[in-house]
Specification:
Layout: H1 3-21, H2 23-29, E1 31-32, H3 33-39, H4 44-47, H5 55-99, E2 107-108, H6 112-125, E3 131-132, E4 143-144, H7 145-161, H8 171-188, H9 190-195, H10 197-216
Helix pairs in contact: 1-2, 1-5, 5-6, 5-8, 6-8, 7-8, 7-10
Length: 221
Amino acid sequence: MSLVLIIIIAATAIISFIAFSNHGLFEKYKFSVGAIIQKKEYIRLLSAGFLHADMMHLILNMYVLYAFSPAIFEIFGTIGFLVIYFGSILLGNLFSLYIYKERPWYSAIGASGGVSGVIFASVAMYPELIKIGIIFLPPELSVPGYIFGFLYFGYSVYMMLYPKDHDNVGHAAHLGGAFFGLIYAIGFHPQLAMENILFLGIMAIPLLYMSYMVFVKKKIG
């Protein structure tokens, strides 16, 4: 395991754990639309990635990050990994800020945007070869990366545009982070992306629908 990855996981775990019982720290550094827009507290765009709602939220994010990071280090190196991870957290939260800019009470936490970026940077390179399953389910139920991507984007777009009262997941941050990882990977390896253009195109269908609804129709859930 890369030392950089160990440091990121350890720092995220320590800060999240401290914030579980330190309400002041949690409130000061969580993603908050009102604090970012009105008070210019831009540090929250990144600091929110070191906070989590509970231990299960933290463990799940760090486990997935650990599982997908080796491929990113191999393909893009340490600098590429850092750009993808933190760039995805940043873009995910910026997209959330755009989506919820009229809702100053909206807040969120978690490294999911960064984790999504790492996942989809991997999928962008090997959309057919990478198999992705669900934790606790048998490997036989895994699906090719591009199928997972299509389902993931489809679900996230639907839940963002048509939110449910019981849902407290930051779908906009997930989408923004995943998009950054996808575009970064394609930009650095365009030839490989062209070889997989059909799979990437299938995966991107929900994103095209989202772009139309958000930027043309101005539909924001």
